[in-house]
Write a structure and sequence with these properties.
single chain, alpha/beta, 7-stranded parallel beta sheet, 5-stranded parallel beta sheet, 12 strands, 36% helix, binds NADPH dihydro-nicotinamide-adenine-dinucleotide phosphate
Length: 314
């Protein structure tokens, strides 16, 4: 009888994923954080890592695992994984693309409507018994407005498709223009921001996009402009955003992601012209189930000697 492969779990996993892993692997749950001595003892036997989208899998950790064969991420974004360090040892990294695209696009549109139509504010207004003293201040029309999408990949495209239903005029920016796309291309976020009412950010995180949405982009978005971020907190210069919201450089923001999650600065939490959600864009039962199936399925496939289901591009 072959012994079960040993894997290191580096995040607090969704319980159904953890259950699936326990059927097939010897699981060391965040042992590297909780018990360094015990971790040092098992590290030479660890053959897989199970992570989530927020996990850090740095070179130092990979270096400590000489038998490591595969890294599976529960999430499409894998900016926390040092992919270069993994590639040097031919360790494949897998993620969970496509299955969460609809949910994240839905959430981008939901946040746009929430901030523009002030839905959380309206809910608070009714609950507080303020309706008899109303009315609420007027809101902002979404249908027919100009939408800019930063990152026209799987999710960006799904946002665009939804926005077409709202009769929005749609433009985008990416590093390379997408010639098949019917939407207007701008070479930089700043050029795009100057031409739109709503700017939705949906690029990957990591070094390549750090601070992409900076003070200049926010200035270009302008005093009537609204920023929506469903990408990663690092893509937006959060200090510049707080400043822009306070100064009226932009009109408002709706954010699902933050620079130092789960910490959200008081300066954002106090503001009225923001809508804040705790990184829940893919957090539905249906999608989390599909993500867990893929995250588990990739590890299962690897140790069964089968092709990986969804490896990230090398
Ligand atoms: P894709 O890889 O399909 O799309 C990424 C897009 O971003 C591409 O169009 C790419 O175009 C563009 N892009 C990359 N770098 C830059 C850059 N420096 N400037 C401008 N555009 C850039 O990914 P998905 O659409 O599947 O996912 C996108 C991201 O969404 C994930 O990586 C993740 O970080 C985030 N996400 C957030 C979730 C949440 O819970 N809030 C849930 C799921 C995903 P090009 O290469 O031409 O630049």
């Amino acid at each position: 009888v072959l012994s079960k492969p040993e894997i290191l779990v580096v995040a607090k996993l969704w319980p159904p994923l953890m259950e699936a892993l326990l059927t097939e692997f010897v699981v060391h749950d965040r042992l590297h954080e909780s018990d360094p001595a015990a971790f040092a003892e098992v590290a030479p036997r660890i053959r897989g890592i199970s992570a989530n989208g927020e996990s850090k899998v740095p070179r130092e950790l990979i270096d400590r695992l000489p038998a490591l064969e595969v890294i599976s991420v529960f999430g499409v974004g894998y900016d926390g994984v040092d992919v270069a360090a993994a590639a040097e040892r031919n360790i494949p990294v897998t993620n969970t693309p496509d299955v969460l695209t609809d949910d994240v696009a839905d959430m981008g549109i939901a946040l746009m409507l929430s901030i523009a139509r002030r839905i959380p504010h309206a809910d608070k207004f009714v609950r507080a018994g303020e309706w008899p003293n109303g009315p609420m201040p007027l809101a902002r029309k979404v249908s027919g407005a100009r939408l800019g999408i930063v990152g026209l990949g799987r999710i960006g495209q799904a946002i665009a498709t939804r926005a077409e239903g709202f009769g929005m005029s749609i433009a985008y920016t990416t590093r390379t223009a997408k010639p098949q796309s019917p939407y207007r291309y701008y070479p930089t976020p700043q050029a795009l921001a100057a031409e739109v009412d709503f700017l939705i950010v949906i690029t990957p995180g990591g070094a390549g996009t750090k601070g992409l949405i900076n003070a200049e982009v926010l200035k270009a978005l302008g005093p009537d402009g609204i920023l929506i971020n469903v990408a990663r907190g690092t893509v937006v210069d959060q200090a510049a955003l707080i400043d822009a919201l306070a100064q009226g450089t932009i009109a408002g923001a709706a954010l699902d992601v933050f620079e130092a999650e789960p910490q959200v600065p008081e300066a954002l939490r106090q503001r009225d012209n923001v809508v804040l959600t705790p990184h829940i864009a893919s957090a539905t039962w249906q999608t989390r189930r599909a993500m867990a199936d893929l995250a588990y399925g990739n590890l299962h496939a690897h140790f069964a000697g089968k092709p990986l289901l969804t490896p990230v591009p090398a």
